[in-house]
């Protein structure tokens, strides 16, 4: 997915996800199905909102239609049924990719309601993200070119490595907690513990090194926040600090984030959407500012960034098909009210998973990993566009689906 991202990969992901959901729907046990519904009911409702908005953007609603349709109608002297989206095909493809990611989250949740299957999903995520990290670190250190050659591929790989550090940390904590449990000495699991912990630690180091070597300070801070959330939950549980400990950590983390944000010199000149952009050309940032200032609250339609940018680029500017970060792309395509809603829901989901990780039993590392992933991805969305890629979206969706599936204890 990372190396061949495009329309063909969209189709493969959609087909495999649909097949997996079809198999799951006829093989899932009744008790698991009831538990799954109780766990993801609210999340499913919230997840449907962006999809419904993309559908609304496709309808020919004259009152909120993009002015580009009126200009086109005047140019060709033929009436056109305008819509919010300026490119039907791009919006439909974006809708398909979003639904595929939501399907991956649903499938991961359905499979992950079982404890034994959940750990295999966690290990699979560790393996996938570590493999991507190895590809990127090999390219950067040895000079092996042709793997992640575009800005979008590079951003995707970095974001996957950041998520990999979080899930690897969660897997390592899981191994330590199993060793400390009463059943471990009786089952003589010392050798298994040593091998598993060493593997998870190596995966964490690999992903962390990639973030350090291949990214900027902002990406490192985003990754540190996600990993710190996982470690903080484990520490609070070990010290039995409970909700007060979580509140103290949240206040400390929010305060530190506020100070970091306020210290960014570009914040006032470029605005919050562009202040933290990593390694983007000045021409792209300038053009994005012009688009943002002209974009209505309804947006230009999902997936239309590449279609709208040629209108705003200068004659000597290079092609601009990749957005500077995910927030800019979503603000232009979906409109700023939807971006505010997404950020608000992300913060709410983070708090929900952190709370669940303290209330959960020995499997608290699953919701903790989901909360850490949400924190990191939220920060990364202001830094680069990687999370909009297929590989990063699928991995992140699987992490969140698994986190919600294991956010409550199952008795059936």
Structure, described:
It is globular and about 75 Å long. The chain starts with 6 loop residues before the first helix and ends in a 7-residue tail after the last helix. Helices cover 75% and strands 0% of the residues. The chain has one domain (7-405). It contains 17 helices and no strands. Residues 183-187 have low confidence and may be disordered. The chain is mostly helical and 412 residues long.
How would you sum up this structure in a few lines?
With 412 residues, the chain is an all-alpha fold.
Topology:
Layout: H1 7-27, H2 30-58, H3 67-76, H4 88-112, H5 115-142, H6 151-180, H7 183-187, H8 190-214, H9 217-239, H10 242-262, H11 266-270, H12 282-294, H13 305-312, H14 326-334, H15 336-359, H16 365-381, H17 390-405
Helix pairs in contact: 1-4, 2-4, 2-15, 4-17, 5-6, 5-8, 5-17, 6-8, 6-9, 6-16, 6-17, 9-10, 9-16, 14-15, 15-16, 16-17
């Amino acid at each position: 997915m990372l190396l061949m991202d495009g329309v063909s990969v969209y189709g493969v992901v959609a087909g495999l996800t649909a097949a997996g959901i079809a198999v799951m729907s006829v093989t899932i046990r009744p008790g698991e199905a009831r538990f799954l519904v109780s766990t993801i009911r609210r999340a499913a409702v919230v997840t449907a909102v962006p999809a419904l908005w993309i559908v609304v953007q496709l309808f020919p609603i004259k009152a909120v239609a993009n002015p580009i349709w009126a200009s086109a109608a005047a140019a060709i002297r033929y009436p056109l049924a305008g819509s919010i989206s300026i490119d039907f095909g791009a919006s439909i493809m974006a809708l398909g990719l979003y639904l595929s990611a939501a399907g991956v989250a649903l499938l991961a949740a359905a499979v992950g309601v079982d404890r034994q299957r959940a750990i295999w999903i966690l290990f699979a995520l560790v393996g996938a993200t570590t493999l991507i990290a190895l590809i990127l670190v090999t390219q950067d250190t040895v000079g092996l070119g042709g793997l992640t050659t575009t800005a979008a591929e590079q951003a995707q790989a970095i974001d996957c490595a950041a998520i990999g550090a979080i899930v690897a940390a969660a897997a390592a904590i899981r191994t330590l907690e199993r060793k400390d449990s009463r059943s471990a000495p009786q089952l003589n699991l010392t050798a298994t513990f040593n091998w598993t912990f060493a593997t998870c630690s190596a995966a964490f180091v690999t992903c962390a090194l990639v973030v350090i070597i291949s990214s900027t300070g902002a990406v490192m801070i985003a990754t540190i926040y996600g990993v710190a959330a996982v470690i903080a939950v484990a520490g609070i549980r070990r010290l039995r600090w409970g909700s007060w400990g979580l509140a103290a950590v949240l206040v400390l983390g929010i305060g530190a984030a506020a100070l970091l944000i306020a210290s960014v010199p570009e914040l006032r000149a470029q605005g919050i959407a562009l202040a933290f952009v990593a390694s983007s050309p000045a021409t792209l940032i300038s053009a994005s500012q012009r688009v943002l200032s002209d974009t209505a609250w309804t947006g230009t339609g999902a997936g239309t960034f590449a279609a709208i940018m040629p209108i705003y680029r200068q004659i000597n500017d290079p092609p601009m098909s990749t957005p500077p970060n995910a927030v800019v792309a979503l603000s232009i395509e979906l409109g700023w009210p939807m971006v505010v809603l997404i950020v608000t829901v992300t913060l709410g989901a983070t708090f929900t998973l952190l709370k669940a990780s303290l209330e959960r039993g020995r499997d608290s590392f699953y919701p903790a990993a989901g909360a850490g992933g949400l924190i990191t991805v939220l920060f990364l969305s202001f830094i680069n566009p990687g999370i909009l890629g297929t590989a990063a979206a699928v991995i992140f969706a699987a992490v969140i689906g698994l986190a919600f599936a294991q956010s409550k204890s199952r008795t059936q």
